[in-house]
């Protein structure tokens, strides 16, 4: 992974970025005129370490990619940024439908589209065809005039077989648990999006790791992300504050400025 010192100077990244999420192997295709579908084959590297449970942050990342691609199409040529995303699990993403090789499917459609903001709905279906999660995501056209993609973003990407995680998701992102209880997500090219900030799915992974650090063995049932400030040229640091079966996670930059907040519910 490339460090922040070697990254391009510009504000828009349309080259070899986002390797971490690309390695999840998600392929997207249009579904009629009003929806986009993403599919990926389950691999053990999706699992919470020591379990056969797919990380909810993997599903959040799928939703962010699929919903975000369609939102970008609506707001083109501006690059959109994620405002918020909530994921609600109907059942634990494990066992039948989430075994290695089983296909996970995420379908997203527009709920409401305005001139600058798009709200997307999504559902995630297991390899057995059972809906296991749903949620919504909001996107905004970046206010930075340099954040444009004149050629847009392709909605069809049928080459997912070229990419596969070969190490666990958190390891691929370079996440570290620090001695003071914080979790660090590094700012490297593999972790950033087209606007040059840390990608929303890997920020959700950082929040998830903070919860697991605070309560080892916890199982997440929902995750709501609010993105307040872009993490550009700075790592993200997360710490979880647990109250019973609910955790509030704050993600701050290297200067201590709040960049995102996650609210996570745990199964009792």
Number of helices: 4
Q: Work out the strand percent.
A: 25-35%
N-end to C-end Cα span:
38 Å
Largest sheet geometry: 12 strands, antiparallel
Q: Structural class from helices and strands?
A: alpha+beta
Radius of gyration: 17 Å
Using the alpha-carbon principal axes, give the shape.
Answer: globular
The helical percent reads 10-25%
CATH class: Mainly Beta
Q: Output the helix-strand order.
A: HEEHEEEEHEEHEEEE
Mean pLDDT: 89
What is the count of β-strands?
12
Looking at this structure, what is the CATH superfamily?
Acyl-CoA thioesterase, double hotdog domain
The CATH architecture term is: Beta Barrel
Low-confidence stretches at least 5 residues in length (pLDDT < 50)?
Answer: 1-14
CATH fold descriptor: Porin
The number of distinct structural domains comes to 1
- Going across the biggest sheet, name each strand in turn: 1-2-4-5-6-3-9-12-11-10-8-7
Description:
This protein is globular. Mean pLDDT is 89; it is low at 1-14. The protein contains four helices and twelve strands. It has a twelve-stranded antiparallel β-sheet, with helices on one face. With 268 residues, it is of the alpha+beta class. β11 and β12 form a beta hairpin. α2 packs antiparallel against α4. It has helices at 19-22, 56-75, 169-172, 200-214; strands at 27-31, 35-41, 80-89, 103-113, 117-125, 131-141, 176-177, 183-185, 220-227, 236-243, 246-252, 258-266.
């Amino acid at each position: 992974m490339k460090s922040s010192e070697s990254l391009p100077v510009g504000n828009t990244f349309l080259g070899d970025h986002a390797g971490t999420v690309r390695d999840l192997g998600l392929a997207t295709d249009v579904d009629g005129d009003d929806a986009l579908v993403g599919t990926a084959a389950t691999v053990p590297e999706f699992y919470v370490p020591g379990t056969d449970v797919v990380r909810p942050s993997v599903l959040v990342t799928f939703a962010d990619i699929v919903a975000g691609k369609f939102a970008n199409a609506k707001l083109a040529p501006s690059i959109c940024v994620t405002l918020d995303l909530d994921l609600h699990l109907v059942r634990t993403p494990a066992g039948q439908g989430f075994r290695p090789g089983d296909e996970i499917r995420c379908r997203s459609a527009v709920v409401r589209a305005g001139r600058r903001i798009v709200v997307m709905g999504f559902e995630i279906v297991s390899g057995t065809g059972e809906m296991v999660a749903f949620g919504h995501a909001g996107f905004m056209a970046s206010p930075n005039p340099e954040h444009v993609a004149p050629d847009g973003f392709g909605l069809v990407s049928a080459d997912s077989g070229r990419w596969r995680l070969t190490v666990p998701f958190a390891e691929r992102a370079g996440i570290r648990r620090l001695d003071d209880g914080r979790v660090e997500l590094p700012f490297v090219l593999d972790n950033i999006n087209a606007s040059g900030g840390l990608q929303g799915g890997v920020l959700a992974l950082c929040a998830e790791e903070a919860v697991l650090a605070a309560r080892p063995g916890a199982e997440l049932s929902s995750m709501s992300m609010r993105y307040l400030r872009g993490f550009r040229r700075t790592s993200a640091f997360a710490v979880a504050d647990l109250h019973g079966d609910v955790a509030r996670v704050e993600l701050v930059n290297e200067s201590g400025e709040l960049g995102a907040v996650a609210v996570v519910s745990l199964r009792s």
